[in-house]
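Supplementary material to the annual report.
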Amino acid sequence: MSSRREIEGIETEIGRAVEQMIPFNRVLGLKVDSLDPKAPRLRFDMRPELVGNPVRQILHGGVISATLDVVGGLAIALASFADKAEASLPRHFPNIGTIDLRVDYLRPGRGLHFVATGRVVRIGGRVAVAHTELVNDAEEQIATGSAAYIIG
Amino acid sequence: MSSRREIEGIETEIGRAVEQMIPFNRVLGLKVDSLDPKAPRLRFDMRPELVGNPVRQILHGGVISATLDVVGGLAIALASFADKAEASLPRHFPNIGTIDLRVDYLRPGRGLHFVATGRVVRIGGRVAVAHTELVNDAEEQIATGSAAYIIG
Amino acid sequence: MSSRREIEGIETEIGRAVEQMIPFNRVLGLKVDSLDPKAPRLRFDMRPELVGNPVRQILHGGVISATLDVVGGLAIALASFADKAEASLPRHFPNIGTIDLRVDYLRPGRGLHFVATGRVVRIGGRVAVAHTELVNDAEEQIATGSAAYIIG
Amino acid sequence: MSSRREIEGIETEIGRAVEQMIPFNRVLGLKVDSLDPKAPRLRFDMRPELVGNPVRQILHGGVISATLDVVGGLAIALASFADKAEASLPRHFPNIGTIDLRVDYLRPGRGLHFVATGRVVRIGGRVAVAHTELVNDAEEQIATGSAAYIIG
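Predicted assembly:
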């Protein structure tokens, strides 16, 4: 059985990987807001370089799709790790690859900061699916996503 | 009827908007490679901050989804403008919003530079759909996309 | 203002259209389970001709995608009608066309009967988006969907 | 090495499975038009029960999504079989499950008969992706699709 300390160690490692080790995540400014395996959250602040429409001062759609992809993968990584911990299987930092992604852009990406949440809706040994959403600081739903991942 | 000069003026304006006026496009380093309305192309170089996996040194999935979104919107903007020019309608810089986007990640995003192409598969007065693809410098297909846009 | 009786009349008309006037809906055996505009539901029974895998006796994926498309359109139709009723605008049977559809197949379609639910997540004058799901009689989530519609 | 006769035997088996063994495919009236592994085709005739809009007499969107799902899976099955034949691996009727599906509805489904084509764009040991399209008898593109499949 995994000790609580071991699990926390891996979670810290995952958080650090998301925030610091992936260069483009730093460009997006992603910060871990929660590592709850049921619904992990990433947070980022609006910054001038993330703008897609300078007149309307809203997020670029690509910032939204990128963040939803990352938070979905994070949800899968945490769930995959938790599954193995429960089964007392050897654990390692899971290698997750996005197979495909859908994003629905629901409202203009206006706000001072944004929170993305991922939720696993299917997980198997090889393929997993996550639903994701992005809300702004007024709790308005900016976008939702659905993505399939391969678990390496 | 639109003179060729007028059309070129608008095309130049569109190219400048894509490359310079949209802050996050500058982060991605997008350059116009072709404004052929049938299949416009954007190009960008691999740069360290675009990496999603530092071990494998491949593009972040978000760079891919962002670029496919932009090149699909560019294809719609050019087609929408061409349609109006043909009908001698008043033209203006078209306002295109992404409704939704699907991306299929087919191969790891490895390469020195990448070219994204957009093709319009449906265009109406209000809604349009584009198919897109990203290839690397070895002409390998890295990803394909399909996206619906609202024409404002 | 629309009287309650008028609204019920239109709702009955919509229900009858879904169940009886659309030939392929009869093939699927779709029955209106709820016309709640916030979350309308369709229901259908497993029948031999809906099977996609005769060994496993599970629903054909096409039965699932078809049903999710219909229930999403139903949600949009009811919401579009409700919006106009509130604004005292002239109402008519709304003409809804699917722009695109994503379906995630989460579990094998096993069960005696199935319930599909649609929820509007974006509605404008021209374009709307619905999220949908299909559950079996054991309340297991068989599939989820996301679809964009044009409002005619 | 597989003899040509063995390969033809499996192909015949696949064709028979698609046309006869899957009940809902019979409802759709799907017939194998080509088993070319690079671009297999299914064909079906317009029939009254496939209609989605009785006024416009066009295909139900669910007929389209169902057919694109089947032809994509057929392309994966043939490619998966061909891969194993080439590698002299033991072959069996491949078990293909749809992970997710996107359909873009491009034109009303009007016509006397329709042809669906599937093309593999990614194939690995566990996950594959196909692009698909449906055209009518006037060669108009009615819909396109993109779907991910798990190979069992």
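The first strand of chain D starts at residue 31 and ends at 34.
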